[in-house]
């Protein structure tokens, strides 16, 4: 079969590799029908994620058809059409029993396309298939469901739910990439007073409007803190969601938040940020952060199946599976191509 194989920083290829085989009785082999590329894959290709080594097949998002299951798999059968989640869950460890699947210590967590071979391939081995795959609901497309492999639950859980968005809140979302857009969409479910999207790219701000942002701010031209304070009697945002992953935007969120509010960090940071505890303690600011757990995937699948969220809007570009290298170029050059999510179909 063919797969996208990582060969060290800046190097990847769509190349011939052995087809995966069952390794444990809880595994499934899934034929990949639809697959996408995540911003985190670009971090990996820069060499930011040390655990990914030469020869690793990338990818942690897919929708596919189950081709083979181990003897211990109970809930998934050959022929099932499933979402392969970015988080693999053993289902039995202390963390999984708490719903903290991202922290699984039973052999799961974020392993696909990271510690084991991933989904950017014709076939993928999915460990703990019973707890790491989800049936595709009737009446929705593979592309829509694919948006719930990672970006949907990430924006919703790590941004909106960790941030404890409530009706009437003013929510500032810094970074309007696919993850920030998911947070905007998720925040709207809670009837906020205003969602303010903040991004340096005007194309991303246009997308933010389509995803429900009430106000968009480009900090290269306008002062986001002034605008948010203007909406909140000078107080600041109830919730500030960081969806970029650089120190400056984390620090901006700490300035945007009101006393008693929450900063929810979603971005993957490659280095430290300054935490002004001398200001934050007296403002009673709550700071949350985390790797997505995907405990919200069943909820999001229901919201999708009942048309309460529109995930089709994420898909800006479509490719055949064999055109993976071109798809990477399109995704990596989002400023020119205006790509949000690129989708490849077998
Ligand atoms: P992305 O790169 O597509 O989007 C980031 C956006 O931030 C872009 O639109 C960019 O224009 C904007 N931006 C950059 N610098 C800015 C600045 N100084 N001020 C305002 N906007 C700025 O990324 P994405 O795929 O949407 O992911 C966002 C972050 O979430 C990444 O760091 C990614 O690795 C992370 N992530 C976290 C998890 C998790 O489990 N916590 C899961 C998936 C992704
Ligand atoms: Zn991802």
TrEMBL record:
Q: According to the lineage, what is the superkingdom?
A: Bacteria
Q: Locate the coiled-coil region(s) and give their ranges.
A: none
The UniProt entry, under CDD domains, shows:
FDH_like_ADH2
Give every Alcohol dehydrogenase-like C-terminal domain span: 178-305
- Tell me one GO molecular function of this protein: zinc ion binding
Cofactor(s) the protein requires to work: Zn(2+)
Which intervals hold domain Alcohol dehydrogenase-like N-terminal? 25-129
Name of the protein in question:
Alcohol dehydrogenase
Q: Which UniProt keywords apply?
A: Metal-binding, Oxidoreductase, Zinc
């Amino acid at each position: 079969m063919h797969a996208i194989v990582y060969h060290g920083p800046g190097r990847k290829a769509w190349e011939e590799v052995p087809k995966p085989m069952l390794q444990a009785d809880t595994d499934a082999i899934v034929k990949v029908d639809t697959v996408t590329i995540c911003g985190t894959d670009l971090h990996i290709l820069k060499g930011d994620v040390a655990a990914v080594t030469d020869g690793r097949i990338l990818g942690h998002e897919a929708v596919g058809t189950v081709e083979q299951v181990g003897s211990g798999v109970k809930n998934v059968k050959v022929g099932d059409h499933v979402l392969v989640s970015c988080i693999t869950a053993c289902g039995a460890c202390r963390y999984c029993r708490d719903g903290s699947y991202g922290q699984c210590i039973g052999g799961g967590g974020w392993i696909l396309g990271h510690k084991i071979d991933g989904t950017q391939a014709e076939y993928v081995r999915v460990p703990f298939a019973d707890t790491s795959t989800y049936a595709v609901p009737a009446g929705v497309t593979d592309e829509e469901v694919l948006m719930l492999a990672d970006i949907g639950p990430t924006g919703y859980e790590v941004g909106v739910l960790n941030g404890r968005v409530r009706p009437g809140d003013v929510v500032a979302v810094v970074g309007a990439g696919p993850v920030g857009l998911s947070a905007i969409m998720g925040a709207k479910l809670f009837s906020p007073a205003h969602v303010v999207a903040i991004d340096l790219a005007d194309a991303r701000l246009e997308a933010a409007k389509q995803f429900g942002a009430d106000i968009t701010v480009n900090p290269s031209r306008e002062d986001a803190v002034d605008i948010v304070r203007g909406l909140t009697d000078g107080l600041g945002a109830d919730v500030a969601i960081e969806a970029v992953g650089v120190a400056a935007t984390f620090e901006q969120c700490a300035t945007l938040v009101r006393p008693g509010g929450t900063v929810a960090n979603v971005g993957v940071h490659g280095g430290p940020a300054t935490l002004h505890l001398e200001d934050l303690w007296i403002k009673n600011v709550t700071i949350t952060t985390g790797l997505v757990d995907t405990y919200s995937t069943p909820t999001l699948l229901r919201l999708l199946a009942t048309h309460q969220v529109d995930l089709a809007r994420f898909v800006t570009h479509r490719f055949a599976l064999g055109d993976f290298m071109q798809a990477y170029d399109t995704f990596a050059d989002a400023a020119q191509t205006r790509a949000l999510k690129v989708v490849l179909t077998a």
